[in-house]
Amino acid sequence: MALFGDAIVVGIALGPFIGATIESNLTWRWYAGTLNNASYQANLNRIYHVQLIFDSCCVPFFILILRETKTDFILAHRAKRARGPDNRSFSTKWTERSKALMRAVIESPKKPTHMTFTEPIVFLCFIWVGYAWGILFLLTQSVVQTFGKTYGFSLLASNTAYLAVGAGAILASFLQPIQDSLFMASASRNKENPGQPIPEARLYTAIPGQVLFAGGLFWYGWASQSHVHWFVPVGGVACIGFGIYTTYMAVYHYCTDVFPRHSAGANGATSFSRFIFCGFLGLAWSTMNRNMGIQWAASCLGFIGLALTLAPVIMLVKGEGMRRRSAYTLKTVKEEVQSNVSMASCDTMDIQRVDV
């Protein structure tokens, strides 16, 4: 999972750098249309061409290497191929659900939306990780403008500075084994479910990570001055990347542990928040920088990040009580009881025979 988190954050950090490299080095042969195209649009076109070529080369590997791992769909696939001695087929409840595709498309957003506004844990994670992701994409604009204006960096050099976000995430991933060991050690203190790790133990490293995230915003803003060496604000950007990684990993694991049978809905809600915040917050930097200046614009963002340190603290202190009052947690307990009863009475709980 540490590598999974690295791939997401570092991949986003690499995107602008790769785009700037393409824009700076490819020749006119990569332009779409004629040489009369506007320069900006032509640059975008050749970037898209390279991405299309790369993605097309990846498709065969995805088809050959990646396999379905969701047990419900694997079971449904096996049931579809199975035939009984009297030439009857088998089906599962998931097979029947798949027949109503459009209904599933309409119904799928309901649970994440409902969980966001009815589950305090999901709502806190929604705001917390959404803001971190918004800052991640805001920096794609901010770093280029700041290093270009303050230090006279080219587009490629400015996006190279943005790689510090990925460097911070990689550094944070080295803490993940420590976080995992703390999580497993919490099992000895669990009075609610003895022998099981406490879900709130997933948040231990996220709290100092969030403080470092907010501090990195202050650091980056006030160090971005012409008389300060350019490497100093790069250190602030790395701290921001460190905090973003710890936030993402904490939210992903915590939602999965708190809502084991409804983790898709909880993580779907946090994913939606990331898209919302990165889409709108990323557009705010130019106006903030113009009206407030880089120092106070970054400070404003830092104060918000510092306030959001309360999110993991609240969940760490009050998380157990919020879980006990959660309708989805109670529903999970009820489903587990029913599942245990069914397993005891029928070895073929999931597959029912039906007429061809």
What is the overall shape?
globular
Q: What integer value in Å does the Rg equal?
A: 24 Å
Strand tally: 2
Beta-strand share of residues: under 5%
Element-level helix/strand string: HHHEHHHHHHHHHHHHHE
Spatial order of strands in the largest sheet: 1-2
Question: Helix content range of the residues, please?
Answer: over 70%
What is the tally of helical segments? Answer: 16
Main sheet makeup: 2 strands, antiparallel
Calculate the terminal CA-CA distance, rounded to whole Å. 43 Å
- Could you say which structural class the secondary elements and strand pairing correspond to? mainly alpha
Give the uncertain stretches in residue-range form.
31-37
Average pLDDT reading = 82
Question: If you had to describe this structure to a student in words, what would you say it looks like?
Answer:
Helices cover 75% and strands 2% of the residues. It has helices at 2-25, 39-65, 71-81, 93-98, 101-107, 110-118, 120-151, 155-162, 164-173, 176-185, 206-223, 231-258, 263-281, 285-307, 310-324, 327-345; strands spanning 89-91, 352-354. Strands 1-2 form a two-stranded antiparallel ribbon.
